[in-house]
Predict the structure of LysR family transcriptional regulator.
Amino acid sequence: MNNLRRFDLNLLVVLEALLIERHLTRAAQRLSMSQPAVSHALKRLRQQLEDELFVRSAGGLQPTRKALALADPLYEVLDGVRTLTGRRTTFNPAAETRLFRIALSDYGVSLILPGVLQKMRRLAPDCRLLCLPAAHGAIPSQLSNGDIDLALCVNPAPNPSLRSAPLFTERWLCMADARAGKADRLTDWLNRPHLLISADGEDQSSLDALLARQGKRRHIAAVVPHYTAATRLLAGTDLILTLPARLAHNPAASLIAFAPPLPLEEFDYGLIWHARSDGDEGHRWLRDLFSER
């Protein structure tokens, strides 16, 4: 594409909708266009940008590498045009049919999602949430690639292209079967077998890294992927589970909770999103929905 005058700039709005929705029908609904019209626009985009841009996948459309590379400058340009013309896109939740893709662990599902879904069903009944597992190390690339719109995670690492907002600060507690007893002393705690929660299957955590720096090590007897099921595994065993305090409820009367016998830093749990979504009114509405407590 060598001549800008030959390029229909209206196609950029279609490209934006396709990048956000990853689905032909939903992009058409977002633009108040027919699906054939969006298909025709995509065909023209492919010709003018000399790239396939999107390939069909099981869930809709998967952007190519070039489409992903165009996303950030495209959002920035269109956001600037909307500011310049006073035509920033408004978001009417009651009339929207948008799909939001969220990455979060079962910790976030248990604590935050119930309230969010209640408000979403009341305020935006035709919008949908697609909740995906949160693999902490993969979140930055998922956000950059547009695979997810928003993530809920622990202590997001600084990144110039990402934004974050804390939701709350959490502390740690330990749980065990009452018959096995507490482990108030560090030596007793280290000698007991431990149950580790790991969504990605790793058998080491930040707690184990802390112990290693002190020349100590605990025995990990079992690794499971979900917090919410873990407490049920303690009954009738000598296992100790160290988990966020908000999840230290007691599903069985035989379980007890106690403070860890070593100082553990509290952690921030919050939202993280890509900077290109700052000006997206629908995204801002979603962030506000999660932030309301």
